[in-house]
Amino acid sequence: MTDNIAISVRDVSKKYRLFATPRHRLLEALHPFRKQYHKEFWALRNITFDLAKGRTLGIVGRNGSGKSSLLQILCAVLRPSMGEVTTEGRISALLELGAAFNPQFTGRDNVIFQGQLMGISNREMDSRMAQVEAFADIGEFIDQPVKTYSSGMFVRLAFAAAINVDPDILIVDEALAVGDAKFQRKCFQKFTDFQKAGKTIVLVTHSTELVTRHCDVALLLQEGAALAYGDPNDVCNQYNELLFGQALNGAEADTSGPARTSLTSPEPEMDNELDRFLKTTPEKDRCPTRRTYNRTERRFGSARARIIDYLVVRGGDFDPVIVRSGDTVDIYVKACYEKEVAAPTFGINVKTVDGVVVYGNSSVVSNLPIPPATAGEIRVFKFTLKLSLHSGHWFLGLGIGDRTTGETEMLDGRYDLIHFIVDEDAPFDGLADLQMSLSVVSRMSVPG
């Protein structure tokens, strides 16, 4: 390994033995002819890369792709089944925060003990204790048993103990967003300070925004194999294609062709996807065939009407997964009314990853009158939105209802139905652009 390389990984693989029951594990251990009762599961296969000193590596991948196993091998918590890992310098890992803490010990004792596990002397830990206390900000509880801590106090101290030991290599597994909002901001500031100090960082996250913004290089894992390694933007684009492609490949697509087109006319000639959407009606729910479909959507309603398809249109692009902040999109929604509905309504909302609704509207709020729907009728509604949103992942929900009684009865609510990404940074802070105007009203001189 050359002098400028902090981490060198060569053909690393990790195999686990999976037993159906504890009895099978015992039978294999005691069998005189070493009969195999387990199944082999390869969490990692032939991973190879070099990370230079002072660089930040972002690792992305779907759940179960091997990210956590790789981090544990880098930290020497796990040994690889095959291959070799070489590191240069002291490593601090933010994996399972506080895993080594003894609930009977005080916070101070646990911090010192964790330093000893990392090979740091008591004298050095004593010199760093003031930094740990200031960062954790738990006051006099630092000298109380950890078992008396709240969950928030616990993770604050665990993070502070791991981050304030001046490591050469920092390894982080989704641990930057701990504690309340102010503490999270402090964590990200510490992360930035480490980068400015020339530390080597390995970060596992599901946030492509975090990777493209803060990482110098990225690694994409899928089923234990390295699919891509290099420029963060290129790797994250491949990750998004992999992530959104699962919805299309795993969905039960409607391959039977259109069941109904027009009640009187023959099959129309269709120029593009929008024409096809407007002029045909599928027998099955076609939403799962869309690239932007979210398989973990939540759905409820009386089912007197059903949302059977949608289409997102941005200019000449149909069903785009990635959009830019400020783009205007048209969202077409197709609903099938199973029974007569006297006062139909429809609505939409936009949410963040953690479920914060940043916008919602409906035909009721907009005072848009809608004629009654008859049984068997197909209707298409259209929403036009200017996506003045910050970069990141966003979810869009759709719903149709009935206000015959004066209260809205949900006929079909599909929450978080659409998942899209705003890829480029917007020229504002916060979640959404409120179209602020700024001007100087007056200027005056102070007397005297």
Automatic annotation (TrEMBL):
Keywords: ATP-binding, Nucleotide-binding, Transport. The keyword Zinc does not apply. InterPro entries: AAA+_ATPase, ABC_transporter-like_ATP-bd, ABC_transporter-like_CS, ABC_transpr_TagH-like, Bact_Polysacc_Export_ATP-bd, P-loop_NTPase, Wzt_C. SUPFAM superfamilies: P-loop containing nucleoside triphosphate hydrolases. GO terms for molecular function: ABC-type transporter activity; ATP binding; ATP hydrolysis activity. The keyword Protein biosynthesis does not apply. Gene3D superfamilies: abc- transporter (atp binding component) like domain (2.70.50.60), P-loop containing nucleotide triphosphate hydrolases (3.40.50.300). One of its GO terms (cellular component) is membrane. SMART domains: AAA (SM00382). Residues 7-248 form the ABC transporter domain. Belongs to the ABC transporter superfamily. This is ABC transporter domain-containing protein.
